[in-house]
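Our consortium's second objective concerns turning raw sequence data into structural hypotheses that experimental partners can test. To show how far this objective has progressed, the report includes one record in full. It was chosen at random from the queue rather than selected for favorable results. The single chain below, 164 residues long, was entered without modification.
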Amino acid sequence: MDRLEIKASLSVTDAGEIVGTAWPFGEPDTTGDLIVKGAFNFVSNELPILFQHNPADLIGTWTDAAETADGLVVKGKLHTGHDRARTVLGMVKSGLVSGLSIGFKTKSSTQQGRNRVIAALDLYEISVVRNPAHPRARITGAKNYDAALAAADLIKRFTATLKA
């Protein structure tokens, strides 16, 4: 049975634009998982930004995600027209919350000592979190954005993906 796994640096602007490294390459996380470059399969062009991996706590949309030499770099927009997204924006700006964590299903992996090396995965969401599994998965920037009209459609698509 496949299970959704949670892992993930981050910055935010006053406008709600958020940028970060969702997964840094080159070293394992605190559980021993090491994801290699080329492993990420994006299940959607726009991934949800959740708070603490809670599907009921949709706070934005990741609009860009790309693998670089250093890791999976993401850019998105918080739905600052909603109170919860504004609250999370305040927590990020104050430094209370600065981590990113990915929600995925492993498709291919091998064991190397205590580490699981993940060669292929389906990425379903990237959350803003207080304590990421990977210590280098952090927010690096942010701006304001109101995507209220896209939120309902995104929630429907995300929920349907999890049920599949």
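The partners drew two points from this record. Residues 142-156 have pLDDT under 50 and may be disordered. The two ends are 12 Å apart (CA to CA). Both points have been shared with the crystallography group to help prioritize constructs.
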